[in-house]
Amino acid sequence: MENDSKITINDVAVAAGVSKGTVDRVLHNRGDVSRKSREKVLRVIEELGYRPNLYASVLASRRQQTVICIIPEYSEGEFWELTARGIRSASGKSSSFGVNVSTIQYDQYDVDSFSSACSRALEANPSGVIIAPMFRVETLRFVERLRERGIYYMYIDSRLDDDGYLGYFGMPMYQSGYLCADLLTWGQPVDKVYVIRIARDKRGLSDPTVSRRVGFMDYMAENCPDCTVENVFIDPKDKDDIRARMDRLFASDGSPVKYIAMFNSRIHLVAGYLREKNIHSCRVVGFDVLEKNMEALRDGFVQVLIAQHSDLQAEAAVTAMADWLLIGKPLTRKDNYTQMDILNRYNCDYYL
User: Fold this and answer.
1) I want to staple 200 with a disulfide (CB 3.0 to 4.6 A). Which of 11, 121, 206, 244 is the partner?
2) Residue 54 CB coordination number (10 Å)
């Protein structure tokens, strides 16, 4: 078509091989339409450039939709700040089509805070929920209640293995742990590696990187079976605790060469210790493009970062949820894995 304004419902119906009534039901997300017919109509709408008229019809229906995003609290410069930025970007675009997007934050170290956030989300009676899960059991209870109410939900950053989620946007967690182990050891014989872990909630209920850790351990078992993997737990809010535990790590044997990995975005805590002690002999691998992590990478205290655009992940999730709620547009894939980018000191400045 030369001009989008000339495209009519009849054009879409003819191209899709369905009736005008079927196209109308797809446009307004009502009535009984088979999945095959719905996908065919939506594909033709995209091909013919009918999308603006499609959203105009949604606006005309004056239906309001609410999407709630449940994510951890954050301070400036932390991982979840970038996620929140992506949510805000998508929210601005979706609001013009009658989709109201709001965020509820929780303390990732406090299961009661998470449960409270879930309760507040249910009280708002949303059409859809996007959730960053930290507490497995409580998350499964929450999504069961969502399913009972017919509320759609998606996962971002990490996901649980339940069957009801509409979509996931984030890294393939298991594979990222496997990759981390390979980048740490290069498949060479290593006697010992240290995994620095966050001492999370007191009841031990929060473990968002468990799948990444499984991938790491599987790689080590397959490729470095004689290697010892030692877990070192630190309190991210206590610098004295970090210093004391890292002191013990370096005093554990006479070698100044240590192989160190961290599965969340806090590798800068390790780098801070190495900088303070002026230690340059270690191989250190971490995750995510926080500025503190990037600084440590540039200065050689971290050798590799496995990076992801968490803002784009969040934006894509909100957009996909809005499209589903407005026009019933199905996701191309249920698990939308984002690429795992490998950064070192020579390419990191070109990533963001």
Assistant:
1) 206
2) 20
CA-closest candidate to residue 197, choices 72, 306, 287:
287
Q: Which helix (DSSP H) or strand (DSSP E) does residue 194 occupy?
A: strand 192-198
Q: How many helices (H) and strands (E) does the chain have?
A: 13, 12
Residues 246, 230 contacting (CB under 8 angstroms):
no
pLDDT digits (tens, 9 = 90+) for 290-311: 999 999 999 999 999 999 999 9
pLDDT above 50 (res 337):
yes
How far CA 233 is from CA of 20, 167, 203, 227, 245, in Å, comes to 62, 32, 15, 19, 8
The one-letter amino acid code at 340 reads M
What lies within 8 Å, CB to CB, of 291 at 6+ separation is 77
Angle 217-178-153 from CA coordinates, rounded to 5°: 100
User: For 103-119, b where at least 16 C-beta lie within 10 A, e where not — what string?
Assistant: bbbbbbbbbebbbebbe
From the number of C-beta atoms within 10 Å of its C-beta (0-12, 13-18, 19+), residue 150 rates as exposed
**DSSP secondary structure code for residue 63 in this structure:** -
> Residues 86-111: pLDDT tens digits?
999 998 888 877 889 999 999 998 99
For helices 267-277 and 239-251, give the axis angle rounded to 10 degrees: 70
User: Contact at 8 Å (CB) between 67 and 81?
Assistant: no
**Nearest to residue 273, comparing CAs of 231, 303, 244?**
244
CA dist., res. 325 & res. 337, Å (int): 22
Q: What is the pTM of this model?
A: 0.79
pLDDT at site 53: 54
Higher pLDDT residue, 88 or 10? 88
Q: Which of 102, 103, 34, 120 is nearest to 65 (CA)?
A: 102
Q: Residue holding tokens 């239906």?
A: 63
Q: DSSP states of 17-40 as a string? A: TS-HHHHHHHHTT-S---HHHHHH
- The H or E element that residue 203 is part of is none
Per-residue model confidence (pLDDT) at position 202: 54
